[in-house]
Write a structure and sequence with these properties.
Layout (H helix, E strand, L loop, with lengths): L1 H9 L20 H133 L5 H19 L1
Helix pairs in contact: 2-3
């Protein structure tokens, strides 16, 4: 409008200046603009009320249900994880108890085996010592018998030489036995 007024002044036309509103009229719109604005607001309000708000409500409810479902799933997962953790701890405790029991059984078995081996070794040692003593006694008796026979033979030879033919065989035998008896008395 300012351009139109400026153009008319340039060409020499007379322009009447409209009355400029003042005071409160500056704040209030013209009545035709007010009616058009109210009508546009009502149309937009009805459109939003009928179609947009129900769609927004549905999406908000769907979002709320999804979040609630996720929270419920997270809570269920948490409870399941706690249950699995408790089961794991229980199985771990059972495994430790089982391992301790197995170690204790192995220790007892090793003790029993050691005692058995030591017992057998003691028995074998005693048997070997007993057999060695018996062998020594029998060897000593055999050696003593051999020495007796040798002494008897030597005695007979000596007596034969000394007596030469004066004593008969019975007397010689008696002398030998007597000599052996005397030797045994000396030994004891």
């Amino acid at each position: 409008m300012l351009q139109l007024t400026a153009a008319m002044r340039f060409f020499g036309g007379v322009v009447e200046e409209p009355d400029e509103p003042g005071g409160i009229d500056l704040l209030l719109p013209a009545s035709s603009e007010l009616i058009a604005g109210l009508l546009a607001f009502t149309i937009i309000f009805v459109f939003v009320w009928k179609w947009v708000l129900p769609m927004v409500d549905k999406r908000l409810e769907a979002r709320q249900e999804a979040i609630t479902g996720q929270l419920t799933a997270a809570e269920n997962t948490k409870h399941e994880a706690e249950s699995l953790l408790a089961d794991y701890k229980q199985q771990l405790a059972k495994a430790r108890d089982e391992a301790n029991r197995i170690v204790e059984e192995a220790r007892k078995s090793a003790e029993a085996l050691r005692a058995d081996v030591v017992g057998k070794a003691d028995t074998e040692a005693q048997t070997i010592v007993r057999k060695a003593r018996e062998s020594a006694v029998s060897e000593r008796e055999r050696a003593a018998g051999a020495i007796r026979d040798e002494v008897a033979t030597l005695s007979l030879d000596l007596a034969r030489r000394v007596v030469s033919d004066s004593v008969d065989a019975k007397a010689q035998k008696k002398l030998v036995d007597q000599y052996i008896a005397e030797l045994e008395e000396l030994k004891a």
